[in-house]
Write a structure and sequence with these properties.
- By secondary structure, the chain is of the alpha+beta class.
- The chain has 2 domains: 54 residues, no CATH class; 100 residues.
- 18% of the residues lie in helices and 39% in strands.
- The protein has a 5-stranded mixed beta barrel with strand order 4-5-6-8-7. The chain has a 3-stranded antiparallel sheet with strand order 2-1-3.
């Protein structure tokens, strides 16, 4: 999908990411959080949801390091990373890119999560990317990707 074709609800979400905000939709009937945002509630089926801003804090539930075929150079240039399931403080769960600071942190992360069952805090970290405006175009447009970073990142 091209950025120019995004539905207004998706555009609002990504505009929020560009502003450093994690915007979601909350059901007016049952209070469930829709993340990523949807117009209707997936929990109870109610048709009305409203925009709310989440704290951007949570805990890492799982973590995996990408294999060589799935490694993303644009992410690697920022910091060592992996993919993890994040449980936001408000209850919603989703998989994100998770930045870890140093390679030695990445190596011990799975053991800390699974063996030691340690709670590892994370916070929202949007990153700026450039993507083609149209499929066959050299013109680039700015795009912000929602990611997370360990609270205890070592520089």
């Amino acid at each position: 999908m091209l950025l120019e074709d995004m539905e207004p609800i998706v555009q609002r979400f990504y505009d929020g990411v560009a502003e450093g905000k994690l915007l979601v939709r909350r059901c007016a009937e049952c209070g469930a959080i829709e993340f990523p945002p949807h117009l209707g509630c997936n929990a109870c089926g109610y048709h009305q949801t409203e925009w709310v801003e989440l704290s951007g804090h949570g805990t890492l539930e799982s973590f995996v390091v990408p294999g060589i075929q799935n490694d993303k150079p644009y992410l690697k240039a920022i910091a060592p990373y992996g993919y993890g399931k994040v449980r936001l403080d408000e209850g919603a769960e989703y998989s994100f890119v998770v930045f870890c600071g140093k390679k030695k942190v990445v190596k011990g992360l799975q053991e800390r999560l699974y063996k030691d069952q340690e709670k590892i805090g994370v916070h929202f970290k949007p990153i700026r990317r450039e993507v083609p405006l149209k499929q066959s175009s050299d013109e680039l447009v700015e795009w912000w990707q929602p990611c997370f970073e360990l609270d205890e990142v070592e520089a």
